[in-house]
Amino acid sequence: MNVRDSEAVEALLVANGHMSAAREDDADIVIVNSCSVRGKAEDKALGKLGLLCATKRDRPGRVVGLMGCMAQRLGADIFRKIPKLDFSVGTRQCGAIPRLVARAISGETNICEIASPDTPPDVPDAHGESGFSAFVTILLGCNRRCAYCIVPDVRGPEFSRPATEVVAEITELARHGIREVTLLGQSVMRYGIANAAWADGTVSPNGFTEPFPRLLEAVAAIPGIIRIRFTSGHPSGCTEELVRAMRLFPNICRHLHLPVQSGSDRILNRMRRGYTRADYLAAAHRLRGGMPGFALTTDVIVGFPGETVEDFEHTRTLMDEADFDNAFIFKYSPRPGTPAAAMKDDVPGEEKMRRNQVLLADQDVRGEAANQRLVGTVQEVLVEGPSLRNEERWAGRSPGNKIVIFDPPAGLQPGTVVGVHITRTAPQTLYGECVP
Ligand code: SAH
Ligand code: SF4
Asked: Ligand 2: which atom is nearest the Cα of residue 152?
């Protein structure tokens, strides 16, 4: 989501007469987009801002700004930590950035433009000019209140963008050569639930009644869009209608990032996730059941307050049962003002580290086995271009979002789709040969 917001701000600044710098050192304006989801992310942003502001000694005209969740969370306090910061802007006011930059250029400093997170959002729909893949924000904020999570405080309540606006934005992207879109929302299947996203009287051609499957149906019909992804999922949104939409439209990728967080019912309850282990597994089963080759990825938090070794073992077994293709494992980090911050952070740092490593090691084995099952298959690969490690070989992504490396046939263009016969694998990568 931050990548998307950064790109929108960059495009807005370009539209206002600025130019993108190829390297950070060349930039006269540098804006740090920050994340508050874990303490470590905030520490990194603060360190980076300190370094950037130090460069102002030799470059007095340089403008340094802050956006994103940490800006929202800290408000004017940020200027006590980083006195030379020129501006700080809240999560729902990205559109104000060109104006703030202009004020900073004219000599103002410590400009603070942070509204309460429940102000109506200003969603810039600007995109960059390059590439064939784009992120599109469809749902802002979050109405769930997972006990550990700071997002509802800093991103405000849910707001679904009108479906007509989303479809218009993607149609425009497709006209500019975009072929893949990823629809973004914290709990993306809650699209159109807290506020209506569809005008009264509009009907779905295929008889969908839930707002999110209806949006998928509308996006799937946009000419030129050959791949649709969406993130993040929640088990409650994995309805029969969603599965029907995913099966019906071949341009919807058979992959979902469905964060589970824990495999212990006791911990899921303390986390206020709103589902049980059985609910989660049932959702996974529904998705995989009707869609062969479906890829499932997840997030897990280890060391949530009160997590015993037994709870942790439940997470291990759940991960085996769900047979994830990939998983991001996080050590619990108390966030100020969240419900969990009032609970005792009682799992020692070393034990969090141990649990983290155990899950990573398990996942390596599982991920490798999942990749091995693809050896011998032909994957439809959306071509990205020369691989980072070896320019001679090219890289792209499979529908399950795995990186695929292959030798490009002459004249191959990024943004096209090729079939790649998978011959071998590495933990995060598939290798193969292009098939005609
Ligand atoms: N909206 C998404 C999650 C956004 S935050 C969802 O509900 O799935 C991304 C991930 O960061 C979460 O899935 C969670 O695993 C992790 N996370 C969030 N808060 C955290 C905290 N306080 N400590 C550790 N990890 C956290
Ligand atoms: Fe945070 Fe839960 Fe909302 Fe995700 S669903 S952003 S974890 S409160």
From this structure: 8
| 81 phi and psi angles, rounded to 5 deg | -80, -40
Which amino acid type is present at position 204? S
Q: Which of 258, 330, 338 is the best mutation target for the ligand 1 pocket, counting ligand atoms within 8 Å of the beta carbon and taking the most?
A: 330
Ligand 2 atom nearest 187 alpha carbon: 5
- Residue of the nearest CA to atom 1 in ligand 2? 149
Tell me, in angstroms, the distance from the centre of ligand 1 to residue 299's CA. Answer: 7
Chain position carrying tokens 């810039």:
124
pTM, entire model: 0.96
Query: Helices (DSSP H) in 227-276: which residue ranges?
Result: 240-248, 265-271
- Enumerate the H helices of 35-96 as residue ranges: 39-54, 69-74, 78-81
238 lines ligand 1 (CB under 6 A): no
pLDDT in tens, 154-181: 999 999 999 999 999 999 999 999 999 9
- Closest by CA to 402, choosing from 292, 325, 327, is 325
pLDDT of 180-232, one tens digit each?
A: 999 999 999 999 999 999 999 999 999 999 999 999 999 999 999 999 999 99
- Reference 38, options 272, 303, 267, 273; nearest CA is 303
Pocket flag, ligand 1, residue 299 (CB < 6 Å): yes
Closest residue by Cα to atom 10, ligand 1, is 299
Over 90: is that where the pLDDT of 125 sits?
A: no
SS3 206: coil
- Residue whose CA is closest, atom 4 of ligand 1? 186
Angle between helices 211-220 and 163-175 (to 10 degrees): 20
pLDDT confidence of 389, banded at 50, 70, 90?
confident
Q: Residue written as tokens 């088990």? A: 235
